Amino acid sequence: MSAYIDFSQPSLWISAATIVFNPTFWNVAAQSEYYNKTITKLFGGNPRAGCYALAVTIFSLGILRDFLYEKALAAQPAHPTLLNPLIHLSALPLFATGSTLVLTSMWALGVTGTYLGDYFGILMDAPVTSFPFNVSSAPMYHGSTLSFLATALWKGKPAGLLLTGLVAVAYSVARRWEDPFTEMIYRKRDEERREGKKGL
Ligand SMILES: *[C@@H]1O[C@H](CO)[C@@H](O)[C@H](O)[C@H]1NC(C)=O
C-alpha cells in the first residue's frame, strides 16, 4: 500500500503533526489549569471565561487540523480499489454517523462540558447517559474518527486511511489520560458532597 502513499509530500507530515498536536495541547492545557489554574489566572480569575477561551482555541485548532488534512489528501494519489463506487458511497453513511455523534454529544454536554470544563471546576450535576452516550463511550472521539475515515474513503486516498489510523491512536492515548482524570475529579466531588452532608 505504501506505493499509494506519497511520503515525500510535506503536507502529509504537517497533517500528521496537527493530528498528534491537538489532543496533546488540550490535555497539557487542561492539566495545567487543574493543578495551577493557569488559564483561569490569564482570565482574571474567571474560570468560565477561561474555559470558553480554551473552547474557542480547541475548536479553531480542530478547523485548522481538518483543513490541513484535506490539503494533505489533495496532494496524495488515489487507489483504484478505493474508487469502487460502493466504497465511495459508503463514505456517506459513515460521515452522517460521525457528524451525528459529534454534534449530538456537543449538544448534550454544552460548551463547558465538551471543552474540559471539569478541569476548571465547572462540573456537571451527573454524567450524561442519554444519546449518544448510550451508544458510544466517547462519541466525540468516535464521531470525529469516523468523519476522517469517511473523507479518506470518499476521496479514495490510502494516505487518508493512514492518517485516520493516527487520529484513532491519538484519541486513544488522550482517553488514557482523560478518562481516569475525569473519574477522579467527579469522585472527589462526590466525596466532598458526602462529607458536606455529614457536617450538617
Ligand atoms: C439510546 O437512546 C435513544 C434515545 O435517547 C434511544 O432511541 C436509543 O434506542 C438508545 N439506544 C440504546 C442502544 O440504548
From TrEMBL:
Primary subcellular site in the record, as a coarse category: endoplasmic reticulum
Which residues does the entry place in the Lumenal compartment? 1-9, 31-42, 113-155
> Which terms are listed as keywords in the entry?
Endoplasmic reticulum, Lipid biosynthesis, Lipid metabolism, Membrane, Methyltransferase, Mitochondrion, Phospholipid biosynthesis, Phospholipid metabolism, S-adenosyl-L-methionine, Transferase, Transmembrane, Transmembrane helix
- List the PROSITE patterns: SAM_PEMT_PEM2
Biochemical pathway = Lipid metabolism; Phospholipid metabolism; phosphatidylcholine biosynthesis
Q: Which residues lie within the membrane without crossing it?
A: 10-30
Q: Name one GO biological process term.
A: phosphatidylcholine biosynthetic process
Instruction: List the subcellular locations.
Output: Endoplasmic reticulum membrane; Mitochondrion membrane
One MF term in GO for this entry? phosphatidyl-N-methylethanolamine N-methyltransferase activity
Top enzyme category: transferase
Q: Which domain of life is it from?
A: Eukaryota
The entry assigns this protein to a family as follows: Belongs to the class VI-like SAM-binding methyltransferase superfamily. PEMT/PEM2 methyltransferase family.
Protein name listed in UniProt? Phosphatidyl-N-methylethanolamine N-methyltransferase
